[in-house]
């Protein structure tokens, strides 16, 4: 187990004149990402659970925000409103930092107890005592622990089943309609309903639908998990579905280095969904010279948007239970010759349609709607409204040969990904799933739009908290 956290953004650039050191809010955000990454890597999993991660980040930043709000003249918290507001003489930066740190510390311990040593050391590095469990009433440490405990108690009953054995176990009784298929050895004879999700057998392990109970989890700002939805996928078989299959076959046969780089960058192996959106927030904080006040608000709203995006997109997945390209394309094109990407380093080859494969690994849950697209649409909408502009400006250089799918081969030369606007970043994140063969186009664009609608609702709710008008 690590004994310290040292996460940084992959971009990490700051505009000239920006603050040299990130606020304590950003530092705890980085620590949270380290804990998230460490847990799923320790388990040997390729993917971090996007739903669980979104909820964890939302809880941590809800606790941080509620502690901070006690030291603001207007803002109200989500659990106590303004009843714990401290007098003006106590609204110092030191007190805010201390309250925030004790809140984040308690929330992280609740969510990632296996990293207690590192979490304690993080608090200690900020000048605070992790062994302080009974602080003086109304002190910053008491405020931080009191507000965090209230958030945790509330969220323990939100339907995610964090306290289950094991944690986050399905509570819906979901059963797939199709038997599991071995990745790379598709057997169409065992398919019962090709239009529905089929679990894969990867490395000898059968995929299990990741947290289907998030489809009925308690949201932050949405009135209910299924407040928004997307149009139903095309019927199978149909002309529209044939066109969707042909589109992905064409993309697969003509994958460019840029498309491969986009597919891999947004796969988020190193930061896990919705980790990319945390980088957006950190970049904005550095770009605009934010301090603890702005960071407490932006990361609160951003992660409430991401959590509601997870809940909303999982409600749609439960509604349609639609097949991934990784199973429907081999079923549809079995016995027919196709042109497609042939595997790492092989380029485009002629193959039996039964052998078609996605460029990137496929996660364990249904296709429609794309979570990446919904997460990204929600984040871009919230950040656009919070900052007052769609302007973003971040970029990333994907180094030659840095591919994890085709290491040493792809891309042949450096590929620079840049996002002038939040909308551009959201669109690229969404299309990355189509380039990678994980999703259909009809999963992507409606997902981005649904994300925008979620981001708008969350922003409106968050602003009421910030202004002290929430009731």
Strand order of the largest sheet: 1-2-3
Class inferred from helices and paired strands: mainly alpha
Number of helices: 13
Q: Secondary-structure element sequence? A: HHHHHEEEHHHHHEEHEEHH
- The amount of helix comes to 40-55%
The major sheet is characterized as: 3 strands, mixed
Shape: elongated
How far is the first residue's CA from the last residue's CA? 43 Å
Number of strands: 7
CATH-level-2 architecture: Orthogonal Bundle
List the domain count as a whole number: 1
Which band does the percent of strand residues land in?
5-15%
Oligomer: single chain
The radius of gyration computed from the alpha-carbon positions, rounded to a whole number of angstroms, is: 22 Å
Unreliable parts: 7-18
Mean pLDDT: 94
CATH names the topology as Vanadium-containing Chloroperoxidase, domain 2
Highest-level CATH class? Mainly Alpha
Verbal overview:
The chain starts with 23 loop residues before the first helix and ends with a helix. It is elongated, with a radius of gyration of 22 Å. Helices cover 46% and strands 7% of the residues. The model is unreliable at 7-18 (pLDDT under 50). The chain has a 3-stranded mixed β-sheet, with no helix packed on it. The protein is built from 13 helices and 7 strands. With 471 residues, it is mainly α. α1 packs parallel to α3 (93-111). It has a single domain (24-168, 176-467), classed as Vanadium-containing Chloroperoxidase, domain 2 (Orthogonal Bundle).
